[in-house]
Amino acid sequence: MATETTRARVARLVNQYAEATHEVNYTVWSRVWYRLHVVYGFNVRAQSKSVFENLLDMAERYGQMERIYALLTTEFTIPQE
């Protein structure tokens, strides 16, 4: 069985959180990028990107996936009903 990459875990957590809170994925990602900047000082939108790169690609290229995962598991917890 293949091990899930950090990138895949991050995407899964964002999708689960968006679904559980009835938010649009874009809104959740915007908050993730904001918190990454506030907590770790990394502004993904200020980095240079290639034509075919999205923000998640850039975050991965700059080694931010573990930080994003940490934010998701501590600040973006799914509310219990």
Structure notes:
This protein is mostly helical and 81 residues long. The chain has a domain at 26-75. The chain is 62% helix and 0% strand. The chain has four helices and no strands. It has helices at 6-21, 25-40, 55-61, 65-75. α1 (6-21) crosses α2, α1 (6-21) packs parallel to α4 (65-75) and α2 crosses α4.
Secondary-structure blueprint of this entry?
Elements: H1 6-21, H2 25-40, H3 55-61, H4 65-75
Helix pairs in contact: 1-2, 1-4, 2-4
The total strand number stands at 0
Shape: globular
Give unreliable regions as ranges.
none
Reported for the largest beta sheet, the result is:
none
Helix content: 55-70%
- Rg from Cα: 13 Å
Order of helices and strands: HHHH
Going by helix content, strand content and strand pairing, the class is mainly alpha
Portion in strands: under 5%
Summarize the structure.
Helix content is 62%, strand content 0%. With 81 residues, the chain is mainly alpha-helical. The model has no long low-confidence stretch (mean pLDDT 92).
Give descriptors for this structure.
mainly alpha; 4 helices; 81 residues
